Amino acid sequence: MACLLLPSCVGRGPHQPREAAGGHLKADEWRTFCTVNLPITLTRLWSGDSATTHERCMLKNFLHLVQAVRIASFREISNADVHAYEFHMHAYLTSLLSLYPGIKIVPNQHISLHFGEHLR
What is the pTM of this model? Predict the structure, then answer.
């Protein structure tokens, strides 16, 4: 991630996320780290020839979440965008349950399934 070149309009994610100043990342640092840095890094790690099926499924799951967050962050949104958000959020939560048996959906995750109604 240290070699990652980003456009100037994209806030810089932390170089060492576990060692953020004061132990906490700011909201913009989290957003950049999770929607820019991690997708690039995880795609390199989990989509190559040496990646396991489980790693590929985890990557696909995470990318559904990233897409949903990206769409929900649009300044302007169309009905097609709302449908895409709902698709990705549902796919994320469905695959989360199959990837991690026994995991429970928490209230914030459940509410995210209804967020599309508020985006319209």
Answer: 0.84
Phi, psi of 37 (to 5 degrees): -65, -50
The domain total for the chain is 1
Q: Give tens-digit pLDDT for 75-107.
A: 999 999 999 999 999 999 999 999 999 999 999
Nearest CA among 115, 119, 91, 94 for reference residue 105: 94
Amino acid (one-letter) located at 120:
R
DSSP 8-class letter at 37: I
d(CA 83, CA 95): 18
| Whole-number pLDDT of residue 70 | 94
**Domain coverage including residue 56:** 26-119
